[in-house]
Amino acid sequence: MTEDGIVSSLKYLFADFLDEEDTTPPLVPDGLPDGAAPIVSEGIHRLVDYQGVGYARLYVERLQRFIDKDLAPETFREMARLMAERMAYQDAIRIAQLKLAEYRDSNGEIISTDIKQFRLDELVDALPSVLAAPLLKVLDKVGWAARRRISIPFSTASRWSIRRLKIEAWLRRWRMFSIRYGQERVWVERWLHMIARSMVKQPAATTAVVETATMIRGYGDAYRHGLADWHAIIDGLAKPTFDGVLPLADLAGAIAEARAAAMPDSRQVSLKRAIAQIRARATGPTAHVAAE
Fold first, then answer.
1. What is the dihedral of CA 197, 203, 205, 207, to 10 degrees?
2. CA 212 to CA 195: how far, in whole Å?
């Protein structure tokens, strides 16, 4: 993550938490590629609802780094859409927000209960880091952090359940001090950094790099597996290619091949094998013959 990215994230974190007087949502920035304005506008409104005005401003500031750069309009639009989705990552707070919104939008006519199962460590990750860090150490020692599952009902079936949803949704104020928020902030900045590097080093692969964001979805084990697979592909293929260490001519094809091999496996056996094979082809004797 760049120093500018850290400063920007911290600035908007504290601005949102301290509840600045200026609560006006940011405007859609000028100079957007064709067709991007509605997507960016939707992203701004989503992130205001998700976390607040300051968080939406961070979204706009991140997008502005790519305006007037050599990025195809369709790729910019996809980046804007996926960034808004990723910044509004799914946690228990978000699920409570969405359940309340569903209830309010229906004028109380939709009464339902959804039971979601979370890993214990991801619930702790949502706490302020000053509390979460020591608690995670204890849970790791007893082996509960990743193995324990907690079922949480999100319900609008009674006054008490609606009140509980409101309390859970209110906790968004603390979200930006959580371990999870810090991890997501770093991930978005690294993803954007890889996009920027691809634009310079392998322009043909930029769309594929943008679309790697779709690997990371939801919560629980699926989220953890997707995140681990993303890092494996970036660290094993994209970054060494951009660094000039791996002579990979078709990075987009390599990413597609690796993604096809990814399975819901915490050991990443199939994915690691595919990455190793791609790297071997790129550096083996036949690669040198083809280059000549």
1. 90
2. 10
10 Å CB burial of residue 269 (0-12, 13-18, 19+) is exposed
- In sequence order, what are the beta bridge partners of 167? none
| pLDDT (0 to 100) of residue 127 | 84
First CA to last CA across the chain, in angstroms?
37
Whole-number Å distance between alpha carbons of 84 and 205: 21
Q: Is the pLDDT of residue 288 over 60?
A: no
118: helix, coil or strand? strand
pTM of the model: 0.87
Q: Is 105 exposed, middle or buried (0-12, 13-18, 19+ CB in 10 A)?
A: exposed
Give CA–CA dist 105/248, Å, rounded: 51
Residue 20: phi, psi to the nearest 5? -55, 155
* CB contact at 8 A, 151 and 105: no
Q: How far is residue 213 from each of residues 78, 83, 151, 259, 290, measured CA to CA in Å?
A: 10, 8, 27, 12, 32
212 Cβ neighbours under 8 A, 6+ residues apart: 191, 230, 233, 234, 255, 259
Q: Higher model confidence: residue 41 or residue 133?
A: 41
User: Where are the strands (E) in 147-287, listed by range?
Assistant: 149-155
Taking 50 as the threshold, does the pLDDT of residue 2 lie above it?
no
Helical spans, DSSP H, in 20-175: 37-50, 53-64, 73-87, 92-105, 120-125, 129-142, 159-170, 172-175
As a whole number, mean pLDDT of residues 131-159 equals 84
Of 123, 114, 54, 129, nearest to 90 by C-alpha is: 123
